[in-house]
Amino acid sequence: MRNKILLFCCFLLVVCSAKAQLWVPRVFGDNMVLQRNINIPIWGKADPNAKVLVEFAGNNTQAVANENGEWNVSLPSMPAGGPYIMQVSVVGDSKQTIKFSNIMLGDVWVASGQSNMEMKISESKDAVAEIKNAIHPTIRFLIVPHDVSLHPKSDILPEAKWKQCDSSTAADFSAVAYSFSRQLQQKENVTIGIIQSTWGGTPVEAWTSEEMLMTVPELAKIVTKNNKENIDESIFKKNEEVVKVYWDIIYNSYNGLKKKVNEPGFNDSKWPVLNMPATVRSWGKGPYEGILWFRKTVDLTKLAKGKSLNLHLHKPEMNYSLYFNGQEICKNVWNAAKTHTYTIPAKLVKKGKNVVVLRMAALWGGGGLNDPADSLYLSDGADKVSLAGEWTYMKGIETGIPKTISYQYTPSYLYNAMIKPIVPYGIKGFIWYQGEANVANAAQYETTFPLMINDWRIRWKQGHLPFLYVQLANYMKRTTNPLVKSEWAELRDAQAKTLGTPNTAMATIIDIGEADDIHPKNKQEVGLRLALAAENKVYGKKEVVYSGPVADSVTIEGNAICIKFREIGSGLIAKNAADLKGFIIAGNDRKFYWAKAVIKGDIIEVSCEQVIAPVAVRYGWADNPDCNLYNKEGLPASPFRTDNWKE
Length: 647
What we know:
Layout: H1 2-18, E1 33-35, E2 40-45, E3 51-56, E4 59-64, E5 70-75, E6 81-90, E7 93-113, H2 115-118, H3 127-132, E8 136-143, E9 162-165, H4 175-188, E10 192-198, H5 210-213, H6 217-230, H7 233-251, H8 255-258, E11 273-276, E12 278-279, E13 290-299, E14 309-312, E15 320-324, E16 327-332, E17 341-344, E18 353-362, E19 368-369, E20 377-379, E21 384-386, E22 389-395, H9 413-419, E23 429-433, H10 442-460, E24 467-470, H11 487-497, E25 504-507, H12 523-537, E26 550-557, E27 560-566, E28 572-574, E29 583-586, E30 592-594, E31 596-600, E32 603-607, E33 616-619, E34 629-631, E35 640-641
Parallel strand pairs: 1-7, 7-10, 7-23, 8-10, 23-24, 24-25
Antiparallel strand pairs: 2-5, 3-4, 3-6, 6-7, 8-9, 11-22, 12-19, 13-18, 13-22, 14-17, 14-20, 15-16, 15-18, 20-21, 26-27, 27-32, 28-34, 29-30, 29-33, 31-32, 33-35
Helix pairs in contact: 4-12, 10-11
């Protein structure tokens, strides 16, 4: 009898555990935006054969879960409006009900790419004012958390929540996507939803499905190789745990604070000395990854006047904590602001000796304080005390950071975890800013970038969804040579060629980059130019000039090459100069010279005394070119070349 009772209990346990709860993926939630004017897909899981009812805006739609418990419905097309409530329930089971509130019907855009799309409003130009003024209840963001997976996932991580845009939420939003959405919301007077799925430093292959990558032989080899190396699920799961430990050590001090390294009275007399500004790269002692503590004692007798002080660190590495006389002043996490300035309360400032302490993560060769020396100081507004010069430093105080595998670079792993779970959420289109991670192989990018675009369109099953993207900005040191090898120029060329893919548009930003920063801060202009493309290409406002001049056709006339342009707007101009700059020309010897370029209507005539029989012209062909061809609407011409010579 006892055995029968135990058997019956086990049976009940199996039955109860097999009962599936109603589930809807996290791409749905309070404050979400649903795409107007299309049939709206809603999906999830329940018990096999359960009837699921979706109620929204007066529409009641039912579905029956299949043998795997999967169900989906399609709500009818509806115009913009709201707010609404959605209720999803299992028919006949009042305990299985999910309700979402404050839902708007509007336009939803997926914003994806690497760090320049991920870059927060808090890190961009005029961040304080932008955040303060970000009161836009009809702009909503869903930020997809970083995640990787060997196989396609059904959901994004739990931290994902739809948020209305206001001064308490906007700081973490993509600056580009925010500028884009703000412009569209104002022009179209419709709620804009942004699903932000981004990860800095990642290549395009990571965002593309394995099935699509396998259709290209050269990519299939890479996928197959990676699968062989990463197929062990246990290694992958163990690495995920190690990654958590890694970032816990980066962000949180345990040993250092316990030893009171941040306190003024801590004895650092036996620590080595380093002259600041300096970085780990400049030490000449090989690469170091881990946590560094830095200490600086300064005499503030002439500044200790009962006033608060400003402490200027210029541009340190992005993950650090700052202490002043033992008190934490800031904890900086991935803030790539151009300058880092902090207020030191007057009550912390003492006459005589004061101690400044930094706990800093040295990652990927970084760590330390950057030049120039006169940007490191304390000030009361009138007088300054330099923070340059001798600092003591020590490594090894905190636990060493473990070795991890960076799966975010692996083909398809970001698609699996950060794109697949949001498919087929109804959307208007995509905006994309990426390419820096692929500059070493621009020729392959000519294949991989259009491949990803087509992959996403196929997955969403909404036809040729608009795909608007950003061409790489100008970056690195400017050269006076007419031609140098430039991987950045080659990648821009590959991006321009992607315009051959239907229903695409490109925002050229060759004029708003920064020579010393791969993350230019003027993200407002980037978002604006993407929005102009959307206005023209997506919202049917053909009168909106959305592109700078684009080379259209080429003819050789004697000793000159004549280039006809489209997208000239009201006309071609040489911006801020009497003459055009940035053109180079070559003959059959493939030796390029600086060229004279003259505007003649929608044609530019290019020539050079050294090149009697020209065959090729390039424009803006450098990492950071000095070029000034615009249309009168103020949009720059995209760099181009008329040849197909291999570099």
